[in-house]
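To whoever is covering the structure queue this week,

Two jobs came back overnight. Logging them here so there's a record in the thread.

Job A:
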Amino acid sequence: MTVEDQKSYIFQAKIDEQVPVVLKGEGTKITVEKDGETRELLDGVTGAAVGALGWGDPDVLEMINEAAKVTSYSYPAFIGNKYSEALAKFYIDNSPKGAFAAAQWCGSGSESNENALKIIRQYHMEKGNMKKIKFISRKTSYHGFTTGAMSISDNAKAAAFSDILLPKEQFLKMDVCYPYRHQKKTETTEAYVQRLLANLEDIITGEDPETVAAVIVETLPGSSLGTSPPPPGYLNGIRKLCNKYDIVMMLDEVMCGTGRVSPNGGLNCWENFLTAEEGPDIQTVGKTLGSGYVTIAGILISPKIRNVFLAGSGRIAGAHTYSGHGFNCLVALKIQEKIKALGLTKNIFEMGNHMGAKLQESLAESPIVGDVRGLGGFWSIEFVKNKDTKESFPMPLNVTRLVQDKCFDNGLTVMGNQGCNGGVGDHICIAPHFIVSEDEIETIVSVVTKSVGEIVDELKETGEL
């Protein structure tokens, strides 16, 4: 094949296949070209839970123009910028009092989780805890696609690169919090939570607490597990164990944070489950921080962590070329200020919960919908072959892709994922723009319900159901 014969010049996804191409967008709608045909879609997943203000926001266009007039680039270790400072202060001021004291800005969620690992390591070195080099994260988790981020993850993508990831003896995995599949029928929620916490404490004590640096969890998991909310007592139980054994508690809110699942018009998902005093020591964020207009993510640092650095070396080791990029930080700041002024985190929380309730109602009788779960603006639907036994469909059948494609054909974007059930299993994620209206929520519910029904008919015709 010559270069002229190539269907695509992008080395990503399917190498020689042109994926649908977005041509333009306005608000919650996008215009996409596929196989030579153009169609308009309701953007139900905003790429990967990224969008907040929607496409073509005229204020954002002005924000971008103004930012380009006053800032471009400086290397933050030598010459900083006031915009990264202002964005950090905005996040701190709009989080529970005392939760955070500083932030570091970078380019992606993977990068933020990668940097967090190094910050945690240096934190323990500053304290003289040189043996604390082990990290505990969860089975069936996703924290990014760089080597370190994959090492704290547990999914098919990470497994494919297991031979070059960091040592399993150092990057340990605790049981996943997944009530739909793992809470026993005779088990109360409290008993299930205690079983999960006992598993974590057994790992900590079995490994020697003096060697454990951090416990890392997604507050509300996304692509790996499918938005399974933590039950009461789970996150604060982890908090207590971390306090008990001098372990850093790290929350990954790259997908679920920055207003997507905040109960009070704020920014943090964990505020649904924890008090300010129980909050994380380190938190990673991204996605909706720039609403897709700029590539930005970050690491939020608690006073506890910052104070140890101040009492020690007073310096953070390492930096990236585009850390704290002034242009990205200024645009993200203005976007967040607009979101706050319009009360859009409140809107997406309420509209999202309304969507979840409607989906649970409309899909209750579907023979392939095992669970509809989520919170605020982030929901998932898990598909099963047998609702009684919760048997997953065979992976090659790729039911999640069938549903995703059917939704596309019917005018809606959703994100299909596999592997939620210990390497098998199918689910889709839905994460609308913060500006979504009630009418658009009704459309999402209608299209998803219709699409799932059509896939049921097709599976019956082929004998798969």
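Job B:
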Amino acid sequence: MRWLPTGPSRRRGRGHVSELTHGTRRGRRQWLAAKTKEQDGGTKPRKCVGPPCHEGEAASRSLKVWSHDENTERGGFKGGLCSAAEAAKGHCSTYDVAIVGAGIVGLASARELILRHPSLTFVLLEKEKELAVHQSGHNSGVVHSGIYYTPGSLKARLCVRGATLAYEYCEKKGIPYKRCGKLIVAVEQEEIPRLKALYERGLKNNVRDLSVVDAKGIREREPYCRGIMALDSPYTGIVDWRMVALRYCTDFEEAGGAVLTEFEVRDISTVKESPAGSPEGMKYPIAIRDKKGNEVRCRYVLTCGGLYSDRLSQISGCSPEPRIVPFRGDYLVLKPEKHYLVKGNIYPVPDPRFPFLGVHFTPRMDGGVWLGPNAVLAFKREGYRLYDFNAQDFADALSFRGPTGVRAQALDRDGNLVDDFVFDGGVGDLDSRVLHVRNAPSPAATSSLAIAEMIADEVESRFTL
């Protein structure tokens, strides 16, 4: 085995494997240069969202979208639609809704909102050059079925619905996945009561096709696995979640959405006057500025900041709690000649002393097999290498009381895990126009489409769209 740092947190005939159908990408970049008519009948551009892509050009013509390197073959996204610097060359950009953060939750939410409100203008702001490169691109790739969560809880409902929506979406869009199943294996007699309790919990959560198997059943499903009893969840699967996230972005673009990369938000505030030369008065009272001084005006703001959700909320005057404390997870990678040892996901029975699922075997879409993760305090919020360090991130973590051995996690002021969704608004004039997603707990990738539905409902209840 060898170590693979990854960041914060099939027996024949048994599993379903979707066909790998990439086809020609029809999602050419849409040109959203809105024009304002002048009295002389002429027009001038009001928004700049990157250079146009002419009819008939291949996807590779969109130089800011798809690259030809090996990253593209894994679903890589090269640079987004338009950098903040490019956008600054045009007139002041104005939109109805701005979404900050292009991880899988932000992308799914942007997609859901624009599909519900096609007549409105939307922009997605991302601080990196590429999309979904942090938690959305550094995970085990499991499609969870919803076994572990308290029956009737929001997490349970979102996970079960999210898994169904995810499989349907992958089928519709031709995204490869494998429904390879999962065994939760008890190896000691003392684990049996906890395993049976998990089974009852899974049934109450309406997890599909869940069953209990004995030692013989374990060997039939995983010939090299040994245990005395296990839960068999054939509905559990694997997928490249970053590829899914990037397809959400394509849907958003095709519906008319704009994407600005390299736009690291430093300020969200109300403004006293309309953009220079704008005939629309104070229709766009919110200004979002990045650290380089670029500005976007909008009517409403939704932030899905992930590892930076607490700092984005503080920008608009909100409480610093819940605070994000980063933990890095590392995996071992099984040698290629040993891949035959593992067919599906193999998990231990969770230990109630620890708030995570335990070290497990996970097959990958590229044919590899991972074993992990551990969980160690990260010295940087985006620290995927052992010695990555950021003084502010490290000081924030050390100055905040909380448990150890946990993946990237939101904690309240007493150091308790925040295991539910947390929404927050701005303060003062921003209160009715800003919505922060402070915490979208695991499994956020599996639940992303269901989470997006809930976030869109919350946006509609708070804002007058």
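Note for Job B: The chain has one domain: 1-175+237-332+375-465.

Please reply-all if you pick these up so we don't duplicate work.
Q.
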